[in-house]
Write a structure and sequence with these properties.
This protein is mostly helical. It has 15 helices and 2 strands.
């Protein structure tokens, strides 16, 4: 079972299953479908919440944390009902891309650079509470834990996400039950979660060619050159260190260079406003999205608002 999933990183699609295992799980709790999406702007313009959703900015980081916290609570309660402990790791605040310092995460860079040489084994990071709990289960109970959390591998719905491809979404298990309770449908949850991400990726691909970002990048390059680092972009800096790591491994010399480049990269990104500039450009580019894409985003933003409201209700109810 993947550590990331056991550690309460409630991403949408978890490609882990326990096919062939039997389970006596009770039926999933009853769920109420979401109401139809609210009336959409007749002129086809994106609403403010749709722009936030498409660029994962504005109110999105706060509401996304509310959603993930609700999933955490519901999944933990479900696992406990089936006799398993599922220690809460908590959901950390998501960085605001408009805040250059938060986006750069300089404290993390000073500690572990880009994280290339900081695998759990190499860095000595302790295992999560869920990992420790899972490790002491018998092989039989580990299989039952996986099945209870993720459901059968052959019980998945197929969802086509434009720009991302086809996903198989679990329909059984505590995570699926929790998503269904919030969104009414695991398929709708998939659409709300993955379609905007695909659109944001498409917008991001257009950012480097814009005059605003090129100007900020020139400032970044000058800042890096002053620190004796010559790279075309943060992406090329990362790739160069990644390639070096593959050749040399986590030597002391590599760790020192990785940290130096990563910290300089982050500090220069703050000074040049790379993150906030890229965000401003992406938000402006949403106006150029096709009519059908804008309509879809407005609809998904309306549905997501209803999901967030349910998530907040679960917190108020203490579930």
């Amino acid at each position: 079972m993947k550590r990331l999933a056991r550690s309460l990183c409630l991403a949408l699609v978890v490609a882990v299953g326990a096919a062939g295992c039997a389970s006596s799980r009770p039926a999933a709790p009853a769920v109420t479908p979401l109401p139809r999406a609210s009336a959409l702007p007749e002129d086809g313009r994106l609403g403010a919440s749709a722009v936030d959703l498409a660029t994962r900015s504005g109110a999105w980081p706060e509401t996304e944390r509310a959603l993930q916290s609700a999933l955490d609570r519901l999944t933990r309660r479900c696992m406990e009902d089936h006799g398993f402990s599922y220690p809460a790791a908590g959901v950390a605040p998501l960085p605001d891309p408009a805040d250059d310092a938060a986006a750069a995460e300089l404290p993390r860079r000073r500690k572990s650079g880009y994280g290339l040489a900081s695998s759990s084994a190499a860095s000595g990071r302790p295992a999560s509470a869920v990992d420790r709990y899972y490790a002491v289960l018998s092989p039989r109970d580990q299989r039952r834990f996986d099945l209870t959390l993720f459901g059968r591998d052959d019980r998945k719905a197929t969802v086509d996400i434009p720009g991302r491809g086809r996903f198989r979404v679990p329909e059984q298990g505590c995570e699926a039950d929790s998503r269904r309770r919030l969104a009414g449908s695991v398929v709708l949850w998939a659409r709300v979660s993955y379609t905007p991400e695909a659109i944001d990726n498409q917008l991001a691909d257009r950012v480097p060619a814009t005059p605003e970002y090129r100007s900020a990048l020139r400032v970044w390059r000058a800042c890096m050159s002053a620190r004796k680092h010559t790279y075309d972009s943060p992406e090329t800096a990362y790739r160069a260190l990644r390639d070096q790591y593959r050749k040399t491994g986590a030597t002391s010399a590599f760790r020192k260079r990785e940290t130096a480049v990563a910290v300089a990269d982050g500090d220069c990104a703050v000074r040049s406003r790379l993150s906030s500039t890229a965000l401003e450009v992406r938000r402006e580019l949403t106006a150029e999205l096709g009519k059908d894409v804008r309509r879809s985003l407005n609809e998904l933003a309306s549905y997501r608002a209803a999901v967030v409201a349910r998530a907040e209700e679960t917190g108020a109810a203490g579930e």
